[in-house]
Structures are given as C-alpha cells and as structure tokens.
Write a structure and sequence with these properties.
GO terms for molecular function: UDP-N-acetylglucosamine 1-carboxyvinyltransferase activity. The strands form 6 sheets. Strands 17, 18, 19, 20 and 21 form a 5-stranded mixed β-sheet that branches. Helix 1 runs parallel beside helix 2 and helix 1 runs parallel beside helix 7. The chain is globular and about 65 Å long. The chain folds into 2 domains: 229 residues, UDP-n-acetylglucosamine1-carboxyvinyl-transferase, Chain (Alpha-beta prism); 210 residues, Enolpyruvate transferase domain (UDP-n-acetylglucosamine1-carboxyvinyl-transferase, Chain), CATH 3.65.10. It is built from 13 helices and 24 strands. The protein starts with a strand and ends with a strand. By secondary structure, it is α/β, with parallel strands linked by helices. The structure holds uridine-diphosphate-2(N-acetylglucosaminyl) butyric acid (EPU).
Length: 451
C-alpha cells in the first residue's frame, strides 16, 4: 500500500492541455467483438489502461493474437486460432474487471462453451448479472453457476429471441448484441441502453457484417448472420475522462483543454457545466483555420472567476447525465454557492465517497429519499442515493483512500483543490480507466509526487 500513494500539494489551478483517447467503455467491448470475426481486426486510439490489459490477457488465453500496430495506440487482433482456455488460467483474471461477462456469446459461437471467472470492477453496489443470465438462457444457453465461476454451453446452438430488459443496462444490452449478431434468426431487444458507446459498438458490428436496426423507444432488432469478418475502427473519445478533467479545471479554478473530446456525446454534461458557472469552448472549430489538425481539436474548459452556482441534477441512462460524471462534478459543486442536489438513479450505492470530501471540509449530506426529481427504483429501499451539497466550502488537505475508479479521481480533484498536502492512497486503481494520469497531472502543472 505504501508505494501506491500520491502526495498531492493542493491549491494550484490546473492549466494546460491533455488528450483523451478511445472510450474505456467502448474499447474493451470492441476488443471482445474481435472474437466474432474470421479475419483480423484493427482498433485505433486504444488507451494504455488496466482494463485493456485484462481483456488482452483473456483474448490471448483464448488464442487471439494481439499485437501493436504501426500507429501509436493501434492494436491488431488475429482470431484465426481461437481455442479453449483452462479454467485455472482464466481464473487468474478473476475479480479484475466486469468485461469477462461479455465473452459469453462470442465464446459460445466460436467454441460451443465458455467459462467466465468471478467478476471484478468497481465496488459501487451489488452489480448483479441477472439480466445477462436471463438473456443468455433465452438465446438457448445453459448457464451453470458453480463455485469456481460460470460455465456455459449451447448444445442446440443460439437462437434469436424477444427480450425486454427490466432496466436499460449497458452491459446487458452489449451482451445481447454480441450474442444475437450470430444467433440463428431475429432478436428483438426492448428497453435497450443506447449510450454512445453502445451505438459505436453497433457501428463496429455493422462493419463486421452484422445487421442491426436501432428503432425509436429503445428497441433494437438484430438479424443473425452466419459469419462476421474483422473490422477497422477508431473509437469514440472517452467522455467520462473528458468530463473528469473538466471538473478538475472547475474545482481548481483552472483551465484545461481536453484534446480529442467530442461535443455531441457530452451535451448533457456541457449544459450542467455551464449552469454551474463553468465556461467551455469547442476548439475543433479552430481546425484548418489556425493550421491545427483535426486530431488536435477538443473542448477547452475553464473557471471564469467569481462564484459558481448550485444546481439540482439527476444521473440517468443516456441521454441523461451519466452516473460516471457525478463524482468528479460533486467536487466542483462543493465550491458553488447554495445547496446543490444530486439524485443518483443508476447505482444505489455511489455516494459513499462523499464521506472523504466531508473529512476535507465539504458539507454533504446523503439521504435515502429521491430528492429533487422524479422517484427512482431506489426510493424507499433504504439506499442513500441522494446528496445535498452546501457550499462554498474551503477544502483542506487530508489522508484519503481511494474506494473505486471514479470516486478515486474525485478524491484526487479534491486534493488538488484543497489547501495543503494530502496523501491519496490506492491511486493505482485510477490506472484502470485514466491513461497516464500522473503524466497528465504533471502537464497541467499539478504538484504531485510519489513520496
Ligand atoms: N443491473 C442489474 N442486473 C444486471 C445488470 C445491471 O440489476 O444484470 C443494474 C445495475 O446494478 C445498475 C444498473 O443496472 O444499477 C445499470 O448497470 P449497467 O449494466 O448499465 O452497468 P454496467 O454495464 O455494469 C457500464 C459501465 C459503467 C457505467 C455504467 C452505466 C463498463 C465496463 N462499465 O457498467 O462504468 O457506470 O455502464 O453507464 O462499460 C466506470 O467506467 O467506472 C463504470 C462503472
């Protein structure tokens, strides 16, 4: 634990440019999709993050050859020799990520069986997989949950089906897509998630030869095909990382240009950022005009001086305000005048990190009620899923232990905004989703060091 700590000298506005690459929550799924092709796939702009390492390890175990391409961030996947892996080998990856659950459909198609280790991922509530299992069974898979993990077979093949998700789950929608594309017949999925990362995955599958229609009202129809080929794809940018740096600019009264960030998928965040009092400029407009290449455009975020405004917001599935934007933004809200309300409706236990902010001088109370908006499925179920943030509060340094990825980044932002030197423990967890964050902090003038 001692070498997994960062000393953060707070109080300096972050200033400068950093770049985001392909979205973590698309890249890892795009990598799983390579299993379905019968020719190699190429994925560009892949960030060097832990989730990518885990999925690379699992693909290699199953015979996919993963190599670096000529471009920085390019990965090439050759699925010519997909093979079974032993449960012991697979279990090395137990607890490291949630992505392995998405191997079910592709492995059933390629091998007729699959073994999925215990899942990992962030500890932000129970994170059940009942929608996944129900969907796989409807496709015809036999799913056995055993002490060592989940064993699946499909003795009669996988067949298209009609499904309706109880909640528009991102992972379960991806599970259905990755299974239905090569299942026999037509699949109709109702109440699907339609996050930009899912649409980008659909684009990839379409490149591979899939036939997928996204209808209005969260209905997706998939016509199964017999074969898919490899793809070449540049993923959408990471809108969670972009928003995290935006919140860091606001909380530290600084200015950060996030190169590579895209406006369209961040509209909801940008509206809230503006309501809070932050300023931003879409800098891809400079492209060509000032001799800047397309790759160098992005979004510049800054604190314009003066006071920030309190806001009421509710996290939701797309096109709502993402749950992963919540934690970084709350740090900035501790600096806003008045009472802000945050109603978390995606995860039931994603406000625990506010204790750490309170230990630094913030005034945040969490409630079981659905505050400030429409009642959600967590109301009256005893989950503290609404927060009231009173500000502005002067933050002071503290010793902090990172509980999960997004909360971890918000701890870091709080330490950067606070007076004095904080020690942030468990920072390696941040590498799961933020590429080279220590280098980027240095580029922005943050005073941090490994003590
Ligand atoms: N849910 C169930 N049963 C299921 C699946 C989901 O009840 O079988 C519930 C969950 O408990 C949760 C809600 O449905 O309350 C939404 O979960 P979802 O399945 O949409 O989340 P996920 O696919 O596990 C992805 C991202 C998360 C992001 C959510 C919501 C990845 C690898 N993870 O998780 O990202 O918060 O969608 O947008 O894509 C992160 O990047 O730090 C992260 C946690």
């Amino acid at each position: 634990m001692t070498d997994d700590v960062l000393a953060v000298h707070g109080g300096t506005p972050l200033q400068g440019q950093i770049r985001v690459r392909g979205a973590k929550n698309l890249v890892s799924k795009a990598m799983v999709a390579t299993l379905l092709g019968d020719t190699p796939s190429r994925l560009f702009d892949v960030p060097r993050i832990r989730d990518v390492e885990v999925v690379t390890g699992l693909l290699e175990l199953h015979g996919v050859k993963v190599t670096r391409g000529d471009d920085d961030g390019e990965l090439v996947f050759d699925p010519a020799n997909v093979e079974s892996a032993s449960t012991d080998e697979i279990n090395v990856h137990a607890g490291s990520s949630r992505i392995p659950i998405l191997f079910c459909g592709p492995l059933l198609h390629r091998l007729g069986h699959a073994f999925i280790p215990d899942l990992g991922g962030c500890h932000i509530g129970p994170r059940p997989i009942d929608f996944h299992i129900q969907a796989l069974r409807q496709f015809g898979a036999i799913v056995d949950k055993l002490p060592d993990g989940m064993h699946l077979t499909a003795p009669n093949g996988l067949h298209g089906t009609k499904l309706e998700l109880p909640y528009p789950s991102v992972g379960a929608t991806e599970q259905v897509l990755l299974t239905a594309v090569m299942a026999e017949g037509v699949t109709e999925l109702r109440n699907a998630a339609v996050e930009p990362e899912i649409i980008d995955l659909i684009c990839i599958l379409q490149k591979m030869g899939a036939i997928i229609t996204v209808h209005t009202d969260r209905v997706i129809e998939i016509h199964g095909v017999k074969r898919l080929r490899g793809y070449t794809h540049k993923p959408i940018p990471d809108r969670i990382e972009a928003a995290s740096w935006a919140a860091a600019a606001l909380a530290t009264r600084g200015e950060i240009e996030v190169l590579g960030a895209g406006q369209a998928d961040m509209m909801t965040f940008l509206n809230v950022f503006r309501s809070v009092g932050g300023e931003f400029e879409i800098t891809d407009a400079r492209v060509g005009r000032e001799g800047v290449s397309a790759q160098e455009g992005g979004i510049r975020f800054w604190h314009p001086g003066g006071e920030l405004n309190a806001v009421a917001l509710e996290t939701d599935v797309h096109p709502g305000f993402m749950t992963d934007w919540q934690q970084p933004l709350v740090v900035a809200l501790t600096q806003a005048r008045g009472l802000s309300i945050v109603h978390e409706t995606v995860y039931e236990q994603r406000l625990g990190y506010t204790d750490a902010l309170n230990s630094m001088g913030a005034t945040i109370q969490v409630y079981r009620d659905c505050l400030g908006g429409t009642p959600c499925r967590f109301g009256r179920r005893n989950f503290k899923h609404s927060a009231v943030i009173a500000g502005p509060s002067k933050l002071h340094a503290a010793d902090l232990v990172i509980p999960d990825l997004r909360a971890g980044f918000s701890h870091l932002i709080a330490a950067l905004a606070a007076e004095g030197t904080s020690r942030v423990y468990g920072v390696d967890l941040i590498n799961r989703g933020y590429e080279d964050f220590e280098t980027k902090l240095a580029q922005l003038g943050a005073r941090v060091e490994r003590p």
